[in-house]
Design goal:
Elements lengths: L1 H25 L3 H27 L2 H32 L16 E2 L4 E2 L17
Antiparallel strand pairs: 1-2
Helix pairs in contact: 1-2, 2-3
Length: 131
């Protein structure tokens, strides 16, 4: 039974990592690529680490695997958010079919402060991208 559970967890993890890899190749801009990879890769690695904990059936290995999963679930979204904000500040262009740019008009590029009250949604084509 233990081998079956490990096999299922590894196959699920490999599937999510494959989805993350396909997301990197198929998504049209940086922001969509980050969204696809930060979610799918985190789930894939967590599943493989759970398979490791089940396979070894040891409290030490299980606690390390669960600690790594917890750390990954905390840090991956934060890292993706910081990279996305840095890319936005640097002027990485949005996909040409993006419907709205919610940060346009709310983000002060000099102080890096974000206005708390959401204004009306603006068209993404109004954003001036850096060459």
């Amino acid at each position: 039974m233990q081998t079956v559970i490990c096999g299922i967890l590894i196959v699920v993890g490999a599937f999510f990592m494959l989805v993350a890899a396909v997301g990197i190749v198929r998504m049209p801009d940086l922001f969509l690529r980050m969204s696809a990879t930060s979610k799918a890769a985190t789930l894939g690695v967590a599943s493989v680490l759970l398979a490791t904990a089940v396979y070894f059936n040891d409290l030490g290995v299980a606690s390390r695997a669960l600690s790594a999963i917890f750390f990954l679930l905390l840090t991956a979204p934060v890292a993706a958010h910081i990279l996305g904000r840095a890319a936005y500040i640097a002027g990485v262009p949005l996909w040409d079919k993006t419907v709205c740019d919610e940060l346009r008009g709310r983000y002060d590029e000099d102080t890096h402060a974000l206005a708390s009250s959401p204004g009306p949604l603006r068209q993404a084509t109004d954003r001036k991208s850096s060459p």
